[in-house]
Automatic annotation (TrEMBL):
The species this protein was found in: Breznakiella homolactica
Transmembrane segments: 6-23, 35-57, 69-91, 112-136, 142-163
A Pfam family of this chain: ABC_trans_CmpB
The protein, known as: Putative ABC transporter permease
Keywords, in A-Z order: Membrane, Transmembrane, Transmembrane helix
């Protein structure tokens, strides 16, 4: 039997990751004017929100032994510290910068910015004051058997999705390197398999292209270095990619 406290935090992590996915997806979809499945994973979870919620909750408990002002400072800064560390770790792991705040004023190495740090601090206050008590109350109502089942199901899914998502980012990195070699040699990308055209319907993108769509959709920062490689694609593929990503302004807009 897994300790109940561990189960509670695992379910709390899952729910906050799901809430984070909703927030990110709504924000990104509104910004880009089409549905965006935000986040690193394929499923409806953004783990950094789950980790952030767990860390803030743990700090809020420990902070009761600290002077009130110091406790709140530590708690409000923790999401920003987590974001910076996560950005640094992902860049070291993949060799890619998955998000970039360089276009925002008051940023540090493009990993964090004052604007979003203020947003995270505000969410931390709402989390501790409103969300955390309500969520744990409902988790405690589940009972040990249902808690074990839900936690086990989520964990099995989560591990599988993380493995597949890591593979997809490495696949994107390799595909981008292969395109660079094609451009260097003056050659054009050719799909591994011919995709038959259907009358009255858009031609399906080749599997190689479909596999990189998730990282490109999830992380606008990746598009900055990928867009110059559009020249390696046949016209019909380039037009489809430009239709989807060509109007983005994340990497070109002036600092706000």
């Amino acid at each position: 039997m897994i300790p109940q406290k561990v189960l509670d935090y695992l379910l709390y992590f899952a729910l906050m990751s799901f809430v984070g996915w909703i927030l990110e997806t709504c924000f990104r979809s509104f910004k880009e004017k089409h549905f965006v499945n935000a986040g690193f994973l394929s499923g409806p979870f953004v783990p950094i929100y789950g980790f952030g919620a767990v860390i803030i909750t743990m700090i809020s408990v420990e902070a009761r032994t600290l002077p009130p002002v110091l406790g709140w400072i530590v708690m409000l800064l923790s999401p920003t510290v987590l974001e910076y560390v996560t950005s640094w770790a992902m860049e070291k792991l993949f060799g890619l910068k998955l998000w970039d705040y360089s276009h925002n004023k008051f940023n540090i190495n493009g990993r964090i910015s004052l604007k979003f740090s203020i947003c995270w601090a505000a969410l931390a206050v709402v989390l501790v004051a409103v969300i955390q008590p309500a969520v744990f109350t409902r988790i405690n109502l589940l009972g040990p058997y249902l808690s074990h089942f839900l936690a086990g199901a989520f964990l099995a899914y989560f591990v599988t999705d993380v493995i597949q998502s890591v593979k997809s980012v490495y696949n994107f990195k390799q595909f981008q390197a292969d395109l660079a070699k094609l451009i260097e040699k003056g050659r054009e990308f050719k799909p591994s398999f011919d995709i038959p055209r259907r009358e009255g319907k858009k031609q399906k993108l080749p599997p190689e292209i479909r596999r990189i769509m998730k990282p490109l959709s999830a992380f606008p920062a990746l598009r900055k270095n990928f867009k110059p490689k559009f020249s390696a694609f046949p016209d019909w593929i380039r037009e489809r990619l430009e239709e989807r990503f060509g109007k983005d302004t994340d990497d070109t807009k002036k600092p706000d």
